[in-house]
Amino acid sequence: MSIKLNDNYNNAKKSYLFSEIGRRVRTYREAHPDSNVISLGIGDVTLPLTPTVIAALHSATDEMSKKETFRGYAPEYGYDFARDAIVSHYAEYGVTLSPDEIFVSDGAKSDLGNIVEIFGDNEVLIPDPVYPVNYDSNVMSGRRISFINATKENNFLPMPDELPRRSMIIYMCSPNNPTGAVYSKEQLKKWVSFARETESVIIFDSAYEAYISGNYPHSIYEVDGAKSCAIEICSLSKTAGFTGVRFAWTVMPSELIINGVQLAQMWARRQATKFNGVSYIIQRAAAAALSPEGMAECRELVSYYMKNASILSSVLKEKGIWYTGGVSSPYLWLKCPDGYDSWSFFDYLLNNAEVVGTPGSGFGAQGEGYFRLTSFGSREATEEAASRLRRVL
Fold first, then answer.
1. Residue 15 pLDDT > 80
2. Residue 342 CB coordination number (10 Å)
3. pLDDT digit string, tens, across residues 319-353
4. Average pLDDT, the chain
5. What is the Cα–Cα distance from 3 to 6, expressed in whole angstroms?
6. Domains with residue ranges and CATH for the chain
C-alpha cells in the first residue's frame, strides 16, 4: 500500500497567481531580450531600509559577535522589547493590549496560512476577490468555504446584512488587498456585532494600516467588543519595507475564548511546537522601526509610495477608467477596458506597454474584468509606466 497524500491539494489551483505572472513575464523576456518590463504587479517594495532600522541591524549584529551579548534561539512568541514596541504602536490608536497577547512571526502571509490549524471543521467565509493565501490555505486544509461578494455595487466592502446567522471563521482585510477599499468604523461595528451574535471569529488582516488616510480604523480593536471575537494579523513588510527582512505579528486577545478555551493558549502551543521564532537581529530592527523615530521614517516611505499611486491615478482619471483604491492603499483596482478580461488585459499591457499588473481574476471570480496595479515601484519606473499607460490606454 502506498503512502497517502493530502488530496485537498488537488483542489487548489495548480499555479500560485504570482508564479503564473512570473512565468508569463519570463516567456516574454526570452522572446524579447531587449525588453524593459516594468512591474506594477507583485506588491514588493523598492525603497531601502531606513537609517534607524539599519542602525539597529548593525548594532544587533555587533552584539551577536560578542559572547556576553550573543543570543541563540529567540523566544517563540517574541522578545519582550519587540512585543512592548507593538503594544506602544497600538496605543497610538487608542488600543490597549498586553504583551502576552502578541505573537511575533516572520510574516502575515505565514500567519494567515497557519491560523487555520487551531480551528476544527468550521465554515470559512472569505470575501471575493481575496488575497490568494486566505483561500488556498483553507482549500489545502479541506475546509468548507463560502464566499461573500465584494463588487463595484457595494464599493468592494461587503457587509453581513444578508448572511445566515450561524458561526463562521470570517476573513477580512482593510485596507483591502487587492481592491484598496477601506472599512469605516461604523461598518466594522456591524461586522463585530454579527460575529458576537453568531459566535463567529474574525481574522482581520491589517497589513496595510499605515497607508490609511482619513478617519478610518487602523485596527479592528478600535471597535468595542472586537477583542472577544477577532484575531488581528499585521506586518512591517509594507510599513517599513520589511518584505525581505520578515517581521509580523498576530494579536490574540485574552478575551477571545471559545467553549471555555482561550485561543491565545492554542496559538501559543502551535507556535511553540512548529515555529522557532524570529531572530534577535530582526526583532531589534522591528522595534527600531516602531519607535517614534522609526515611524517618522516609515511615514516618509508610505508618502513616497502614495505619491506613486497618485501618478498612476491621474492616468486612469484622464482616460476615464473606473478604479478604486490609491487613496488609503498602495493598490489601484481598475475596471478593464471594454473587450478585455483580466488575463487578456494583462497580455495587452505586457505586449504593448511592457507594463505588468495583476489580473483581478486571480483573486477570485468577482475579480474577473478587473486589474490591480501597485505603487511600490521606484518613482522613475512609476513615471515611465504612467507614460506608457497613457499611450496605450
1. no
2. 20
3. 999 999 999 999 999 999 988 999 999 999 999 99
4. 96
5. 10
6. 7-48+294-392 (3.90.1150.10), 88-259 (3.40.640.10)
Q: Which of 36, 21, 46, 40 is nearest to 382 (CA)?
A: 40
pTM of full prediction above 0.85? yes
- In angstroms, rounded to a whole number, what is the distance separating the alpha carbons of residues 393 and 388? 9
Pair 205, 131: CB distance under 8 Å:
yes
Asked if residue 363 lies in contact with residue 178, where contact means CB atoms within 8 angstroms, the answer is yes
CB 254 within 8 A of CB 96: no
Cell numbers standing for residue 187: 461598518
